[in-house]
Amino acid sequence: MDFKEDGFMFTLALIVVAFVIVQAAFFLVRAIKRAKELGIEKSTIKNTIVSSGLFTIAPAIGIVATVLTLAAGLGYVLPWIRLTVIGNISYEVTAATNAIEAYGLSGGIANAITDKEVFATVAWVMTLGSIMPLLLIPFLLKTVQKKIGKTVSKNSKWSSVMSAAAFIGLIAAFVARAIAGKGEADIIGDGAGVLSVAALLFSVVLMLIIQKIADTKNLKWLDSFAMPFSMIGAMALVMLLAQLLPESIAFLEWRG
User: Fold this and answer.
1) Above pLDDT 90, what percent of the chain?
2) Residue 79 and residue 68: Cα distance in Å, rounded?
3) What CA–CA distances, in Å, run from 158 to 14, 169, 179?
4) I want to staple 191 with a disulfide (CB 3.0 to 4.6 A). Which of 13, 117, 198, 255 is the partner?
């Protein structure tokens, strides 16, 4: 049996999942009890629970897409463990790729990891990197908020500018990767090419279409699903495109 999906890994995953479920149930029960103490109607409590549950579906779809992305190299269990607790595709993929490349291996997470030492290193890098915010926030958040608050109080526009800059910087990294990302010459799909640009364009177009539908039809719930639907839709369209186009065109890479 593959060590990435053996009994130990599944047992570890089940323990983590059980802990998360118990923790969520604990706070749910306490929240309901407190709501009743405050005199909130049962119908309001029920509607809040149902709506909150429904809105967790959208980020869950994005998480599933991330698990599938990481599964090629890490198997399904480790990504499942990681993303059950904390994490996202932008961090997990980057952390795993950097850890793999530190061993001089090419291809990143596109190739299955067969070395236990490399696998353990990837797991530690992904985990420790996500732990840092949990350790730093309790000690540094107030200080950072005060400094940001002083800056914003002088000029209120700075708040939106800083938020937009952080988001644009994150998106720009993915856009640049799709257009000019350097890959290994012997690995198909590793570098920028027709399929990577197609995935970028498909995701942008789908996002615009979904947001347009949400606005025109006044479907506020659809906004929460726009990103995961765009991701999954773009992946499906790229897979279809790879089958329809001639291989010489579909797998053409200018940075492979």
Assistant:
1) 20
2) 8
3) 44, 16, 30
4) 255
Q: What percentage of the chain carries pLDDT values higher than 70? A: 91
* Distance between CA atoms of residues 44 and 56, nearest Å: 18
Which sequence spans correspond to the domains of the chain? Answer: 1-154, 155-256
Residue 255 CB-half CA count within 13 A? 16
Residues 6+ apart with CB under 8 A from 180: 192, 255
> For 68-127, how does the pLDDT look when each residue is reduced to its tens digit (9 = 90+)?
878 888 888 998 888 888 877 667 888 888 888 888 887 677 788 888 999 999 999 888
Q: What does pTM read for this prediction?
A: 0.61
For residue 144, which amino acid is it? V
Task: Identify the three-state secondary structure at position 80.
Answer: helix
Q: Which two tokens stand for residue 72?
A: 């090629």
Which residue type, as a one-letter code, is found at position 198?
A
Which residue has tokens 């709506």?
51
